[in-house]
Design goal:
Length: 475
């Protein structure tokens, strides 16, 4: 048989994270390209876990929540190719978990439900096909086989218990205080996030930002307006191919952060969040709940199994948003690729808005060094952390998932400045009035620092968290 991935380089016996992630990205893109292929339609979804079978247990035990899913896998795939696919899908997460342990010594096995090992036969085909064909008798009494991919294949990349215990002993050695001081433990694959400016430290109570910066958080001098306009003009809807399913299991692509300097140098940094490595989580939400609708999006409350934005908040409460359009006066939700394109455009705006807010705090921080600290309190406000959540079940829905703006801590949801007016609203509450005036000041700073190229035109949210910005370019 021809190789499943003819363009895939052979991985080393003990690959590093960069090598493993490059292979993962290649495989993911390969199967994404098959989503709308006119070729073989007999494809299935595969869910896979790293797992072991504990003594006296009836079911496998997942290891470190290492999980991945893939659609459009040919149903007649053989054991060798299927095992390699599962290994490549899980390998980046496994490498992060083992902290430098030599994977060349690990003998992985491929297993399905009930811990049944899959062993290659000759010819090596149809490793899981029997689970997707049903034999029925037709009205004439003849037996027919019908293909059905209603349910995904559940697979395990297994390791034995002695190997698992050896890896745990490796962790103990790394964490032991007797380790040689000259040796440095492997760096974590998760990049830590830093605060964008000292204003978050000086004024917050305490409040962490989710922007990721390196070095100088801003430009020494403002870039030319032409460069900013060029960066804004490059914002286009991404050409994505979405998964086709819906359930509580999601792959979540977190929106990255960027300094103003990084954004101008790489203006498409927010335009396709699916280029990053996703995380897997379970999100609970009520599909029968009445969503709250705005002009172009509807929103539902939800709750994740784990905190999705730990650098911003430990809360597991989230807001799930989807886009819609009007058809004969009725709201019609976007579907499939159209929904993903819409949500990615909204995430792009959110990323730009967050960075432009940071631009204001950097400006104030530098002004303070010359003019001194102001005698009044400066509000600390930021846009919510967010990401693109694509379900891994067969209905394949997509959501924009955001931090929940909790009215108990953030106060009522308010519109500070409308999209169609540069004048802030008047409020009876003093804390709302101060924030409305401060956000108007932010618009002036953004207009000044971009040399008249852009500013945020829509401010809404709570006392600290904002959402759904609009960017006015070339005002």
């Amino acid at each position: 048989m021809a190789p499943l991935f003819p363009q895939l380089p052979v991985l080393s016996s003990n690959p590093g994270y960069t090598e493993a992630h490059a292979a993962y990205a290649l495989v993911r893109n390969y199967y994404a390209s098959k989503a709308f292929s006119s070729g073989n339609t007999q494809t299935v979804s595969v869910q896979c876990w790293l797992a072991r079978m504990e003594a006296k247990k009836a079911k496998p035990t997942p290891i470190h929540d290492i999980y991945m899913a893939m659609n459009n896998v040919p149903v007649n795939i053989g054991v060798r190719d299927l095992k390699e696919l599962v290994r490549i899908l899980l390998l980046p997460q496994i490498i992060s978990w083992v902290r430098g342990y030599d994977l060349s010594t690990v003998d992985f096995t491929l297993r399905k439900e009930h811990w049944i090992e899959l062993v290659a036969q000759h010819p090596d085909v149809n490793a899981i096909a029997e689970d997707f064909f049903v034999t029925k008798a037709n009205p004439r009494g003849l037996q027919t086989r019908t293909f059905s991919n209603k349910h995904p294949a559940k697979l395990y990349l297994g390791i034995d218990n002695p190997t698992y215990n050896t890896i745990l002993a490796h962790f103990d050695e790394l964490d032991s205080p007797l380790v040689d001081d000259d040796e440095e433990p492997p760096m974590s694959s998760r990049t830590s996030r830093t605060k964008v400016s000292s204003y978050y430290a000086n004024w917050a109570e305490p409040l962490l930002t989710h922007l990721q910066t390196s070095g100088n958080p801003g430009l020494t001098t403002s870039p030319e307006a032409a460069h900013i306009k060029n960066a804004l003009m490059l914002q286009v809807q991404p050409k994505l191919k979405a998964a086709k399913s819906v359930c509580s299991d999601f792959l979540i692509y977190i929106l990255p952060g960027a300094s103003w300097k990084t954004l101008i140098q790489n203006p498409r940094i927010f335009s396709d969040v699916t280029k990053g490595l996703p995380t897997h989580d379970v999100i609970f939400y009520n599909t029968k709940a009445q969503p709250v609708s705005g002009g172009f999006k509807s929103a539902l409350p939800g709750r994740s199994k784990n905190a999705l934005f730990p650098d911003s908040s430990p809360s597991k409460a989230v807001c799930l948003k989807q886009g819609f359009h009007l058809q004969s006066g009725d709201k019609v939700m976007y579907e499939g690729v159209s929904q993903v394109k819409f949500l990615c455009s909204e995430l792009n705006l959110l990323g730009w808005g967050d960075t432009m807010m940071d631009l204001v705090y950097v400006f104030m921080e530098r002004s303070e060094s010359e003019l001194g600290r102001p005698p009044f309190e400066i509000p600390v406000m930021r846009f919510v952390s967010a990401g693109l959540a694509i379900s891994q079940s067969n209905q394949q829905e997509a959501f924009m998932v955001e931090e929940w703006i909790d009215p108990e801590t953030q106060g009522p949801f308010v519109k500070y400045i409308h999209n169609n007016s540069g004048r802030p609203r008047d409020f009876e509450r003093a804390d709302h009035q101060i924030r409305a005036e401060f956000l108007s000041f932010c618009q002036h700073v953004q207009y000044f620092k971009t040399n008249g190229a852009a500013y945020i035109s829509d401010f809404q949210g709570g006392l600290e968290l904002l959402t759904d910005p609009q960017i006015i370019s070339d005002p």
